[in-house]
Amino acid sequence: MINEMRYSGVNMLDIFKREALKERKYIVATLGKLVAIPTLSNPGLNYKKCVDLLEKECKKIGLKTKLFKVTEKKFIDQLPEANRKYPRYILLASLDTGAKKTLHFNGHYDVVPASSGFTADPFKLRIIGDKLMGRGAADMKHGIVAMLTAVKILKKLKIKPGWNLEFSFVPDEEIGGECGSGYICAKKLSKADAVIEGDGGGGNQLTVAHRGIVNFEVTVIGKPAHASSHNEGVNAFLKAVKIVTVLEALRKKIEKRKSKYYVTKPLSGVATMMIGGVAGGGTKSNAVPDKFTFTVDRRVIPEESMKKAEREITYLINKIAKKDGTFKVKIVSKGMTHSSIAEDAPLCRYLGAILKKYFGREPKMLMTGGRVDSAYFSKVLKVPTVAFGVEGKNYHADDEFTTTGDIVNTTAIYAELMRKLF
Ligand SMILES: [Zn+2]
């Protein structure tokens, strides 16, 4: 009440932006410290070092913390085998204000490997004017920095947030998130009433949907024979080609399915299928290959059923194998669901109004082409979730970067989100 009176008639976003600009040093230093820890999700490097740093930073700004080490087999077993001996850590941080509701911010601290074309050390933050370059600078350690800076500003201004605040800093988003956001939601470790997924791009747009993925690994099993008498064998490669030809015809049908959501790239808004990301088989050039394996990557739009998308492909492949009768096929599939929220949901309207006020024009509500952790919060924890983070460029590519200006913008918007309950 006192706070509201003290600041009545003032555009809080202007104040938050001004304060965020004053935190430039903190922003750059904190991002620098985070980028300097190569938290590669494959196999899971330096995770403890990173959560220790984050825990220290959280405590400095008055957040309570709780560190979780994921040890349950059920979760660990979902990791690729080579990753399982590397421990996975989740840091939860919170601020109990005695409010009626809790707003949760989620950010992943893992990164993809540094690509070879970086012009300088990818794990040393490069500052070029306003640009902040390094692996993880844009995906998405910058978002974590914006969250921390927003709390720091509210504390400095002695503004009590209208929500209880919760933060989760998680590993493994880049490899599926089962031991990160997946764990939090399955174990119901959060009391969230609404979730801001910090991994959704920033600027004047909010990400209201993302597609799901079904990954298939198809192994065709034929019969070996010497090349000189190949008719005595069953060529698994040629049988795989037969399957792929039919799947390619199906792809054209699948890719006619358009989502209603706005996208920045045309293909991000349709159901897609890509065959052969990984493919191989056979042992010798003079032997009929008795095994051939290929993968299929199927992106599922929110309007589609994940189960149906999986079955459509499995059914077709099995049908071909049955009709042919000379070979067997083994299909392993793994699905990660899509996520979406109505554009007129209170959370979207609320964040949308803040963006409009900040940028001076209607924000775009979009569907992202990639997968983010939102689905765990919206589908498992069943809480309204929208993705909004900090702008950045060259995600997963050379010279990944964000700018101080972009972190400042999101910091101000996060602070305003924290300030007032909708
Ligand atoms: Zn990310």
What do these coordinates show?
By secondary structure, the chain is an alpha/beta fold. The chain has 2 domains: 2-210 and 339-419, Zn peptidases (Aminopeptidase), CATH 3.40.630; 212-336, Alpha-Beta Plaits, CATH 3.30.70.360. The protein has helices at residues 2-6, 12-22, 24-35, 47-60, 73-76, 141-156, 181-186, 236-254, 306-324, 346-359, 374-380, 404-419; strands at residues 64-70, 88-95, 102-108, 126-128, 131-133, 164-170, 194-197, 205-210, 212-221, 272-281, 291-300, 328-336, 339-340, 364-368, 385-387, 401-403. A 6-stranded mixed beta sheet has the order 1-2-6-3-7-15, with helices on both faces. Strands 10-11-9-12 form a 4-stranded antiparallel beta sheet, with helices on one face. A 3-stranded antiparallel beta sheet has the order 4-5-16. Helix 2 packs across helix 12 (404-419), helix 3 (24-35) packs antiparallel against helix 6 and helix 10 (346-359) crosses helix 12 (404-419). The site of zinc ion (ZN) has 5 residues, from loops.
Topology:
Elements: H1 2-6, H2 12-22, H3 24-35, H4 47-60, E1 64-70, H5 73-76, E2 88-95, E3 102-108, E4 126-128, E5 131-133, H6 141-156, E6 164-170, H7 181-186, E7 194-197, E8 205-210, E9 212-221, H8 236-254, E10 272-281, E11 291-300, H9 306-324, E12 328-336, E13 339-340, H10 346-359, E14 364-368, H11 374-380, E15 385-387, E16 401-403, H12 404-419
Parallel strand pairs: 3-6, 3-7, 7-15, 8-14
Antiparallel strand pairs: 1-2, 2-6, 4-5, 5-16, 8-13, 9-11, 9-12, 10-11
Helix pairs in contact: 2-12, 3-6, 6-12, 8-9, 10-12
The structure holds zinc ion (ZN).
Zinc ion binds next to loops.
